[in-house]
Amino acid sequence: MDQHTFMMAYFVLFFLPCVFSTRGRILSAGYESMTSQVPYSGIRKVLTTDNKECKFPFRQGGRIHHHCLTIRSSKPWCSLTHNFDRDLQYGFCAPQKMIPNVSVHTSRRITDPCQVTLCQHGGVCTRIPHTSSAECSCPESFTGTHCEHKKCYEMVHLHYYDTGETWGRIHLRNVEQCTCVAGEIQCERVRYTMCRSNPCQNGGTCRRITATRKEVCNCRWGYGGPHCSVEPESECYTGRGTGYRGVVDTTVSGSRCTAWNSDLLYDELHVGTVDDSPRKGLGNHAYCRNPDKDKMPWCYMLDNGAISWEYCDVPACVMSVRE
């Protein structure tokens, strides 16, 4: 099957039957997929026949996939981005012998690769369908094939950065450029100028790093995040919770929230589709928010291999009444 035939079949068979909910969940009629409720973290490297890297997991037909597919094609294929529905970029997967995996060689016959695959630091082992391989889904603070690499937690931004990532910050009144190196934050003071405009919220002040032209915020006490939009000590919400800026990131069922800037989101509400998203609390995080004035804070999560949503495990504030 050539690429033109593949794309035509995909549009007819997947986009036309799709049914959309009010928040963009997509369910393709008559189609089931692998079930997974673990958040994604790019772990397993798989190559295509033209030596490009597959991006797992990826979104296709509104569902989340962690392995190569044979849907409407005799050849296994994968997406070259995390969002095939949006980008429509794909490649045919290389034969299994060319695909590195996490299997451990042993003289004993193993039917479940998760019996020997060692996911460290609380990582969850998931068997890859139709193969003898497995992959590790890591907690937020670790990454790597076996979740062996520690990320860097930036207390100013309330965010985990991966090894090699760089960012700017204001710490103890110093403007710094930081890098995550082997799980440790290394920073150096840098030159800066005043900002032309102020993206910092809640009274935060802005500085512009000269070398990178990136704006960084100095937040008032009680606020955090890159733009001072997060209130770490906020434990409840008032009204409908449109102003909730706390750090709860789990739903009422215990599922972990998906980041508002996740590549797995497409038709849903996210930083790219919501007007003035920073002012509505959306950003590079998975904290519960209420950008559409629902009855309480909520978030997107993975449910049976599809993007769905739930209300969050955030209590309403109890207002004391004076006699």
Automatic annotation (TrEMBL):
Covalent S-S links between cysteines: 119-136, 138-147, 200-217, 219-228
Kringle domain span: 235-317
Keyword Coiled coil: no
PROSITE patterns linked: EGF_1, EGF_2, EGF_3, FN1_1, FN1_2, FN2_2, KRINGLE_1, KRINGLE_2
Stretches assigned to the Fibronectin type-II domain: 49-95
GO molecular function: endopeptidase activity; signaling receptor binding
Annotated InterPro entries: EGF (IPR000742), Fibronectin_type1 (IPR000083), FN_type2_dom (IPR000562), FN_type2_sf (IPR036943), Kringle (IPR000001), Kringle-like (IPR013806), Kringle_CS (IPR018056), Kringle_sf (IPR038178)
Protein name: Uncharacterized protein
